[in-house]
């Protein structure tokens, strides 16, 4: 599937999570979008699999961009954010990290957390 715009660019719909391709890509996503929820996950992680449909739903229902970072593919990036367990969720608002949580949070909590920065 070829595309002219990089994944998650402002011209692209953000109705589904964007897979982060590296540190520069993450920095660009955070710079280009007002609110970004980053999910540091692993394919082998059971709680990550449980959280995935919740994040899909949030991406479709909120103005926030949902980004996913595979910690096995991007170990250095995960280390920069102090990720010691998965899933770890990092929320950015206006280019700044504003929250970080490890573990699964309920959909309602995630939605209210995002809405606190999108209003």
TrEMBL record:
Task: Print the keywords alphabetically.
Answer: Disulfide bond, Electron transport, Isomerase, Redox-active center, Transport
Q: Which residues form the Thioredoxin domain?
A: 3-119
Tell me if Protein transport is a UniProt keyword of this record: no
- Record has Disulfide bond as a keyword: yes
Top-level taxon of the source organism: Archaea
Q: Which GO terms describe its cellular component?
A: cytoplasm
Which residue windows are coiled coil? none
Q: Where is this site: Contributes to redox potential value?
A: 46-47
Q: Quick one: where's region Disordered?
A: 1-20
Q: Which SUPFAM superfamilies match?
A: Thioredoxin-like
Disulphide bridges, residue numbers: 45-48
Q: Which PANTHER family does the entry link to?
A: GEO12009P1 (PTHR45663:SF11)
Protein name as it appears in the record: Thiol-disulfide isomerase
